[in-house]
Amino acid sequence: MRDWLDSGIPALTGHPDGPPLIPPGSAASIARRHTDGIAAITEGRVRLDGARLLSERAAFTGSRRGGPISAGRHCRLLPTADGWAAVSCARPDDPVLLGALVCADIGDDPWPAVTDWLRTHTGAELAERAELLGIAAGPVGTAAATVPEPLAARPVAGLRVVDFSALWAGPLCAHLLGLAGARIMKVETPVRPDGARRGDPEFYRLLHGGHESVVLDPGDDNQRRALCDLVESADIVIEASRPRALAGFGLNAQEFVDSGGTWVSITAHGRASNGIGFGDDIAATAGLVAHAGGNTPLFVGDAIADPLTGLAAATLAMSAPADGSGHLWDIAMSAVVAATLDTGSATVPADESAVLAPRRREPMGLAAESGRDTAAVLAELGVRPG
């Protein structure tokens, strides 16, 4: 319980007009074990409090607990015909996709129509349609809890990391590797920059300060080849998209691993799934929800699946087979969350005076403007993007 109280998560959990709640499970304690392990691997160079990292985005954005509405206000917990579901509407095209889900023109506010539709459909029906449409949604509490175990610990100082990830989980992993001395090269495409660039600029700077920024267009043959050359030069690749995305760029994770590299694959529900998700809906579908009396589930923290997964991914990336061979880490965010839930654990009301508020770390270094380092990085490789 002490780890939860220190984490800042109870301040973000519960009804807006109710007391803060201590969530079920041991996510805060597990997060602390991750940062303790990272401190040991780095011989004290990286000392952070994993429990506090779980809530630090809210310290930048000022998000507050919203009960069945997420702290970031983009996800809702809604009743279905057979239980509850989490539905996100975070992207500009999500209202159109949710309209397709319910087969109606729902305008700019999808929630009334989605709420009505869910009452007469099961969680399984929602999950099937959401996967087909690319909607971040699913029934509460249905994820498996299989998470890979670290291998032999290894230092990452001086290693080259190519980071294709976006938002929070993958960038947190890259941030931690960077603090440990790795060289981080963030890669974006011209048409799909990191959506976090539209968020709080100081939080973005916290996760990306000191990293290099490369922008390449895989639709251009020369830049596509340059992208492949950049990946071949890496020791570690981080991706946070469905496998077919980078495969469509001509990048093969298994070939990279066979050549001795470490490929960190972060997905909503595993590489075998085509489902997508964001931190709030993933945590809820994994079963990490709170209750304040009655049956209505409430969100825990702010997109808590993201920092939990970022910590887990960094811990795994700081390990490798003892024989020096490559490894592919298949990290399902929903499984990372589900593994923190203890049988029989329950929500507990917290004394407001004992709950710490989310706390921010000060960013170190500037986040590079998009594409600033493209030419320099490719020149170093002897590659011309065209």
TrEMBL record:
Domain of life: Bacteria
Annotated spans, Disordered: 1-22
GO molecular function per UniProt: transferase activity
Gene3D superfamilies recorded: Crotonobetainyl-coa:carnitine coa-transferase, domain 1
Sorted UniProt keywords: Transferase
Listed name of the protein: CoA transferase
